[in-house]
Design goal:
Layout (H helix, E strand, L loop, with lengths): L3 E2 L12 H9 L3 H5 L3 E6 L3 E2 L4 E11 L3 E3 L10 E13 L4 E12 L5 E4 L2 E5 L4 E5 L3 E5 L27 H55 L3 H19 L8 H7 L3 H15 L7 H25 L2 H4 L1
Parallel strand pairs: 1-5, 3-11
Antiparallel strand pairs: 2-4, 4-7, 5-9, 6-7, 8-11, 9-10
Helix pairs in contact: 3-4, 3-7, 4-7, 6-7
């Protein structure tokens, strides 16, 4: 086991001999003259500054068989603060005495002109330990500012200095990624349902547009059956049915439309409009035929919408 043991936490079981401290305070050098353990400590410099490191050397001469403990980071170095330590190997002379030494790096933030420090060395006994303090040493605090130095007045400068704007690219990139992530999450859980609602909304809007345009022509036909007005009504009806049924109604003949939508009323209405457009033979049934076309378009719209509302979102998409 080494003759000098230095470790953190050892001071919890070491009890300082109060009587020895009193005698040491009353009689200088008491610990060195009466005890076989002699301790000395001194600063390796006469002056220091606030916040700058300074070194303190601590050494102990003791019988070779004795075990001593040096202070470590858990010790209170007030008014200084511990920064680092450096220990040196034990040296034993021919008289049977060993010398252990350490150099502490400390720093102070106090403002006293003279600052003192004394450190102990703990001698381990059977069931106790004894603290042997080194004589106090002092260091002078060198001030950077003197009390008589004039206080300089700061010159005010309130002129505006333009600063160019800089884009915060990490923030922009993070916002874009977060937005995309939120959109993907929403689409994963609600995307098909949202698309279904959107298609229903678009279908209703398209139907309202068809009804508005078609009704204008119906009112004109009610007043007077005109060939061009009936032709425009049939064109609007075919365009709407082409969008609703997703089939090219604009290119279909009357016979082809009836094959796709077999309905007696539809057949009679288309035949009547053909007579008006191509044979220019309007009759009292012309207005009723135009109304029939609108009714069939409305019926197919309701059927399509009901099918879409009752279907699953995945089927709509």
């Amino acid at each position: 086991m080494p003759k000098s043991v230095v470790f953190a936490g050892t001071f919890h079981f070491c009890r300082t001999a109060s009587l020895l401290m009193v005698l040491w305070l009353a009689v200088p050098g008491y610990g060195q003259t009466r005890s076989p353990v002699q301790t000395s400590g001194r600063f390796l410099g006469d002056t220091t500054k606030i916040g700058l490191p300074l070194q303190y050397a601590l050494s102990s001469r003791h019988p070779a068989a004795a075990q001593v403990i040096f202070p470590d980071s858990n010790f209170s170095f007030s008014p200084f603060e511990w920064v680092d330590k450096a220990f040196f190997p034990t040296r034993t002379d021919a008289d049977g005495f060993s010398t252990d030494s350490a150099v502490y790096t400390l720093v102070t933030f106090g403002t006293d002109s003279i600052q003192r420090l004394t450190l102990p060395v703990y001698v381990i006994q059977n069931r106790d330990c004894t603290a042997v303090f080194a004589p106090a040493d002092s260091v002078f605090l060198k001030r950077v500012l003197t009390e008589n130095e004039p206080v300089r007045q700061l010159r005010a400068n309130t002129s505006h200095v333009p600063v160019p704007r800089q884009a915060n690219y990490p923030l922009v990139l993070g916002s874009v990624v977060a937005t995309l992530l939120v959109v993907l999450i929403i689409y994963f859980f609600f995307g098909k349902r949202i698309l279904k609602r959107f298609k229903l909304f678009r279908m209703a809007r398209h139907h309202r547009g068809f009804v508005g345009d078609y009704e204008k022509l119906v009112r004109r036909i009610r007043q007077q059956v005109d060939v061009s007005t009936v032709a425009n009504a049939v064109v609007i009806w075919k365009e709407y049915m082409e969008w609703l049924e997703e089939k090219p109604f604009s290119t279909y003949t009357t016979k082809e439309i009836i094959e796709i939508l077999p309905d007696q009323g539809l057949a009679e209405a288309l035949q009547e409009t053909d007579r008006v457009i191509y044979a220019q033979m309007p009759s009292e049934n012309s207005f009723r035929s135009v109304r029939t076309l609108e009714y069939i378009a409305l019926r197919r719209y309701r059927e399509k919408r009901t099918m879409m509302e009752n279907s699953k979102a995945s089927e709509v998409v």
